[in-house]
Amino acid sequence: MGCRLVLFHPSFCLRVIATGLLLLLSNAPLALAEWSATAGGSLFYTDDTALFSATRHSSLDGDPSQPVLDTSRTGVGSDMVFEPTMRVMKYIPWSYGRTELVFRARGFIYAINPGFSQANFHVEAVHAFTPETLVHLRYFTVPDQLLGLSEERRSGTEQLQDERVTSHLGVIRLDHRLSEHWEVQLFGRAGIRRYNEPYQQRDTLLWTVGPHLIWHMTHHTRMVFGYHYERGLAEGRQQHEFEDDISYVHHFAAVSFETRLMEHLDLELDFHYERNNFTSGIPEDERNGGHENIYQGNGRLFYQLTDQMTLMMTVQRSNRRQNFLQTHDHNTNVSAGIIYRF
């Protein structure tokens, strides 16, 4: 039991990922490597400011288990959100494979509710041992993210205050091509979410495991199936006086379909289902015995205007239900944007 806890402890897993990234960087050859970069931006309309970030992050390769949302945070209203992105890649050839170093930055800039504006960053090393086998090591962070107004419990007054969280996540993913048509990916991650002082009992350690299966139907068409199991343990489980334990078990399942409709037009469709089972054992905690169901559908069109420029359109719809508060929240996002490859 002790060995198992150490292996799945988030701080241990983060150290493994960080060590792997440092080893890849420190052993990089000094010869000039190949660089490439992409930049882009999308303008979104969203009908729920507080849910926009959670909806945008929800994907197999994203951060679907966003911080738990209180009812007081939703229903903020609609907004226009600009989403700039930048991705820089450096390719390094080795005698024993090829490494791709990636830095990515993305922001959400809100027009009406600028307090919700945020940025997220990831640094990743992808090493190809063979054309069929790759390993991904990634560090992902979202600093000082505003979640909205929530009831703080630490003072005993239950006043509404801004709730903020900083997420630090490490990811390991092993990809292996089984055959011409089938590919398997083994996914794992661990990390911590740290909240601002009025909500410190919500500080959460988490770890995630799950498989992905990819079916390459044709050269231009594929389907992706994936499942994640995640466990989150909050400080509040040991601080019964606050009656605010957000510990959870998270199930995430997704299926996506990607195809080329014509020479310059690509289509991506996907559907996600999430189930959050809250594991609070505090009798007075509103989440005791509670759960949340989330259904989300996404559609994206990409039109390659030139060799360097791609136009894109996105439509997203998510529905959330919590049994302990009998709430039903939804979020619709629609956007148009551009990607430019340097």
What is the element string, with H for helices and E for strands?
HHEHEEEEEEEEEEEEE
Give the termini distance in whole angstroms.
51 Å
Using the alpha-carbon principal axes, give the shape: globular
Please summarize the sheet with the most strands.
14 strands, antiparallel, barrel
Give me the secondary-structure category: mainly beta
Strand order of the largest sheet: 1-2-3-4-5-6-7-8-9-10-11-12-13-14
| Overall helicity | under 10%
Number of beta-strand segments: 14
Number of helices: 3
Uncertain regions: pLDDT < 50 for 5+ in a row? Answer: 1-14, 24-32
The proportion of strand residues reads over 45%
Mean model confidence by pLDDT: 88
If you compute it from the alpha carbons, what radius of gyration comes out, rounded to the nearest whole angstrom? 21 Å
